[in-house]
Amino acid sequence: MRRIATTLGAVVAAATMALALPGSAFAATGNLVINGIGHKDPGGCYSTGPLVSIIVNQTDRLAYIYSDADCFGEVQAIVQPGLATLSFGSSVFIR
Fold first, then answer.
1. What spatial distance separates the first Cα and last Cα of the chain, rounded to whole Å?
2. What is the pLDDT along the chain (95 residues), one digit of tens a residue?
3. Is the pTM of the predicted complex or chain greater than 0.90?
4. Where is the signal peptide (predicted)?
5. Of 62, 80, 84, 90, which sees the most CB atoms within 10 A?
């Protein structure tokens, strides 16, 4: 009887972890619009080009605008969910 309780406890713990962890690994939910081009449920780094960019963050995550391509360099701005900004950055990162 003790083995069954131990095994059942381990299964319940594993199931709880399996249900709790995946949410943090998935991409943002919503749309990230960069210069009029939408990216549904974005995740990762997006190039904005060398000119001034319009970033519209319609997701549930923060969007980080970097000074250099490939999301390197300094963070120029952080765009909150539901907001838009003009940016001089070269790339945008969103989780």
1. 45
2. 555 544 444 444 444 444 343 444 568 999 999 999 999 999 999 999 878 899 999 999 999 999 999 999 999 999 999 999 998 899 999 99
3. no
4. 1-27
5. 90
Which domain covers residue 84, as residue numbers? 27-94
Domain count along the chain: 1
Whether 75 is covered by a domain: the verdict is yes
Could you tell me the CA-to-CA distances from 78 to 5, 6, 10, 48 in Å, in that order? 49, 47, 41, 14
What is the reported pLDDT for 3?
A: 53
Q: Which residues are 58's β-sheet partners?
A: 31
The Cα 71–Cα 47 span in angstroms is 8
R_g (Cα) of the chain, nearest Å = 19
Domain membership of residue 67 (yes or no) is: yes
Q: Is residue 70 part of a domain?
A: yes
